[in-house]
Design a protein that fits this description.
By secondary structure, this protein is mainly alpha-helical. It is built from four helices and no strands.
Length: 94
């Protein structure tokens, strides 16, 4: 069962007003932030990750095939660096 608890927070008044103007759900935002900090039950995290991977499996496979065939997009903008050849001074033996 998903139990919710009422909390009290002190935040910047102007920031809160801007968040309300943007229709940001503060409950959802706070829970998301706590998940990002690793505060969620590990079993729930694993279940959500597994579900996400399954939902996006086809897109991930297509992306991987595209990269295997064409490489990464930024590789076209980079050139392999040529090694500088060091010129050695030749000394004559007397």
């Amino acid at each position: 069962m998903n139990r919710k608890v009422k909390v009290s927070l002190n935040i910047d008044r102007d920031m809160l007003e801007r968040a309300r103007q943007k229709d940001i759900d503060l409950d959802e935002l706070f829970e998301h932030a706590l998940r990002r900090y690793g505060c969620e039950d590990p079993e729930k995290t694993a279940a959500r990750t597994k579900a996400w991977r399954e939902e996006n499996r086809l897109a991930i496979e297509q992306s991987n095939r595209h990269i295997e065939k064409h490489g990464l997009w930024w590789e076209a903008f980079t050139r392999p660096r040529k090694k500088k050849q060091v010129q050695r001074k030749t000394t004559k033996n007397p």
